[in-house]
Amino acid sequence: MPQAHVWTGRALQPEALAVLEGLATVSVSSVGERNNWYAEASTADAIIVGGETFVTGEVMDRIGPRLRIIARTGIGVDRIDLDAATHRGLWS
User: Fold this and answer.
1) What is the CA radius of gyration of the chain?
2) Taking a C-beta distance cutoff of 8 angstroms, is the pair 37, 17 a contact?
3) pTM higher than 0.90, yes or no?
4) Distance CA 34, CA 21 (A)
5) DSSP letter, residue 55
6) Going by DSSP bridges, is the β-strand pair 69-72/24-28 parallel, antiparallel, or unpaired?
7) What phi, psi does 49 have (nearest 5°)?
8) Residue 1, pLDDT above cutoff 60
């Protein structure tokens, strides 16, 4: 079975990367002010975003159908549109 691909818009702590090791390949790039992160994230099965990034239904559509999981570093999921994620069958 092929490994999952996880994209994150922020550097993860070594401990977090160790948890993912063996389960997925991880790509790290900066979200910043760019809009091209959607293209980078479109190759991922899961994305991990920081508290400064909003993941709306439009963002989910731009990332595309491969996306299965949206995770957020920190506490809460207030920056993720849970209704849009549920409608698309995504885990948040």
Assistant:
1) 12
2) no
3) no
4) 28
5) B
6) unpaired
7) -115, 160
8) no
DSSP secondary structure letter of residue 11: P
Position 2 pLDDT exceeds 70: no
Does residue 39 belong to any structural domain of this protein?
yes
Q: How many domains does the chain have?
A: 1
Q: What are phi and psi of 63, to 5 degrees?
A: -70, -45
d(CA 63, CA 42): 4
CA distance 89 to 49: 18
CA atoms within 13 A on the CB side of 63: 25
Q: How far apart are CA 9 and CA 14, in angstroms?
A: 15
pLDDT on residue 22: 81
CATH of the domain at 43: 3.40.50.720
In a domain, 92, yes or no: no
What is the tens place of the pLDDT at every residue in 18-72?
Answer: 999 888 999 988 766 566 788 889 999 999 998 888 999 999 999 999 999 999 9
